[in-house]
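Email to the structure team, subject: Internalin-A model.

Hi all, the expression group asked for a predicted structure before they design truncation constructs. Nothing fancy, just the tokens so they can compare against earlier work. One-line instruction: predict Internalin-A, return tokens.
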Amino acid sequence: MMKVVLRIFSCCTPTSPARKHQHLHSLRQSETVGDAQQTPNLPSALVSPSTVRRRPSSPASHSGPTHPPLPLRNKSLSDPTELTSEAGAPSTSYSNEPFAKTEVPASTLPALPTLSHLVQRQIIEHLPHRYRHQPGYELSLVCKRWRDILRTDTYDLSVTPEGLLLLERYPNVRHLQLRGWLSDEQLAQLPRDLTSLDLSACDGFSIKGLTCLLELPLQKLDLCGDRAASESGPPSCLDPFGRKGTGWGRMLAQHPTLTELSLRACEIGDDDAMALAGNPRLRALDLGHNQVSLEGVRELAANRTLQKLGLAANRVDAQGVELLAANATLTALDLGSNHVDRPGVKALMSNTTLVTLCLPDNGLDDWSASRLAQMETLLHLDVSHNQLSDTAAFYFAQNLSISELDLSGNTGIRWKGITLLCKKIRLYMLSLGELDIGDEEAKSLATCETLRDLRLMRTNITTSGLAALIKSPSIETLDLSDNTGLRGKDAEVLAQSPTLNRLILKNCWIGPSVPTLAKSHTLRHLDVRGCFLDQRASVALTQSGIPSILRSPSGL
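Reply from the structure team: attached below.
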């Protein structure tokens, strides 16, 4: 890879043989002393701290040339964990893909002719898209033309409101996430060809400012009200009644192109819900944590174009569940934290189109589990934080269609139920958070040949249990968040796994042992937020070969 980069510099920036020899020598020297990389220096208003990968400068002297700033594209917004939303929130840090070592003397590299602009573009386009903006493949350092090509190649971006004026440098951005205080005037400055907009990390705007969104060709919009409008902000930034979401649904129901809309926790009532139900273009609608009752549910259930509907933490009772169960176009339904009792579960049994069903925190018992297990179309089922026991696990083990199952918080499920699940059901993802997972349970989980994603948050798993799990030939993702009993020896055990590529250790006290994980040859994603990293651990992570690392600011 190093040879390719050196030749590119030769192609695009012809120099004298003496200067070329000096340039190549300095590049090789910088690689030898630690593969140090200049930190990108984009305007702070444009790029969030999570947008770039950083590597600390080597303590050795570096006499190589100074390169121009490196603009990098943020990853796709489908992975929201890689963006910093608020001050004090965990930041994202990535390590570099190191250059391959080369022993070719500089004098043996032939001088190459200047390449045409067409050939230069073809060289960039030949590289896989995920590598074009990645440190270690410093394509944008070659010359201004290559930097401009890469900016044109950027489609997803995360910016602060102050960075809106700089978006003209990225003419093809279609998916945008904004963070921070956003005024109505700044909202009016959005690019006119956006198709996806995420304002869930913004506050300050009002319903008046949102009207400008009706003129954009948006297909996806996220206004998650957890931060969509600050309750402590000036009254002028809210609607005239001081309520953060009043009227948003009625206004956005008029949007001519929206197909996906999230209005979680935006104080949406029945009037807004009924207006949105009349929009024939919406395919996915999330109204979780609002105040939608039977009147609004009735209109939503009558909609025949919605495929995904979220009504978690609203006022949906058994009658509302019956209305929704009769809908033959819904494939995904979230009714968590409502009043889905036995009549509601019985009504859901008659539905033959649902693929994803979420019913956490509804007081469900083993009888309800026996009925849900008879739904042959379900692939993804969330029944976390209910009142289920090993008997419920037995019923679910008879269902051969479920591939993702969340049983977190059902403390009545123990070794017997887990063993039944692992023997009889073909699971791809299993969540057992907040359960008592001991050595026997871990050994049973390790025998599940189809299991790829295992989530054991707050389970107090032991070292011997981890040793059993890493013997699994299939587990690729492991979530051990909030297992505060994990220590250094546990990190050593996890680093030996031959299959793990995603490891989540949020709020685990293993900070000093993180350098052990950095030696893993399989990890591609590591989340150590809240792990109290010391300086040595932070440096080890930065210099590791793990492409995606999430960690808290200041090593917390």
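Residues 2-56+63-152 form one domain. The two ends are 35 Å apart (CA to CA). Ping us if the truncation boundaries need rechecking.
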